[in-house]
User: What shape does this take?
Amino acid sequence: MFDRIDHLGVAVAPEDLEDQIALYRDVLGLELVHRETIEEQGVEAVLFDVGENHVELISPLGPDTGVAKFIAKNGPGLHHIAYQTTDIDGALATLQVRGVALIDEQARRGIRNSRVAFVHPKSTGKVLTELTEPAHH
Amino acid sequence: MFDRIDHLGVAVAPEDLEDQIALYRDVLGLELVHRETIEEQGVEAVLFDVGENHVELISPLGPDTGVAKFIAKNGPGLHHIAYQTTDIDGALATLQVRGVALIDEQARRGIRNSRVAFVHPKSTGKVLTELTEPAHH
Assistant: This one.
C-alpha cells in the first residue's frame, strides 16, 4: 500500500522558523527544495530532501490553526508521519474497510499539488498519520 | 551526510504493543521484519519495512527507562527520527564542528547490529534525532 515514508512533519513556532530552516539546511545538511504557504492547512511549509524522503517544517499562519493548537499543547517538535502511495483513493478505501477512522475521507490538495489525506490519530496509537500521493509519479 | 530517513521511532506502552504491532502489520500493511530486546536502551523494539525506510515501535522494559518516562510525560506516539548514514563517525564529527550537542559522542550498538548515536533535542528544535549506520551497506 505504501512505497516509502514520504516525509516527517515537524511543528515549528513562527518565531523559530528561520532558525529551524538554518538547522536542517546548514547543520544537518539537508537540501531545501520547496517552500509554500498552504492556506487550507493554515501553515507555512518548508520541504527538505533526505534521499527520496523529506522533512517538512510546518509553521502556523495564525493562533486558531491546528498546528498552533498542537504547539500550544505539546510544544514544537514531531507532528506527523506521511506515507507515500501511488493510489491514495485505493489506500483510503482499504483503510476504511479495515475500520480506520479518517479525518479526510476524500483526498485533498497538499503541498506541491500532491493529494493528501489524514488518518485520525485515535486509530493509529496517537500518531497523526498522513497519506500522500505525489503529483508526479 | 544522510542518505535517507532510516526510521521513525514510535513509543508504545507495553500493554499496547501487540495491538500496535497488529495495526502496523495488518491495517497499515507494513512488513514486520525484526524484533529485538535492546537491554542497553531499555526497550523491546519491533521493526517494519516501508520501502527502504522503517517504522520502529519501541516499548519500555521497565518504568525507569527513558521511553517509559517519555510516555509518562507525553503519552504514546512519535518519539524520534533516525537518519541513515554510511559514515556515522564522520557525521558525528561534522555535527560537533557545527556546534550540535550530542547525547552520544561515540556511536554505540543499536538494533540489528547497527551503530547509532543520538543528538540532544536541545540542538534540534526538541526533535529527538538519531543517526544510524546499518551493519550491512
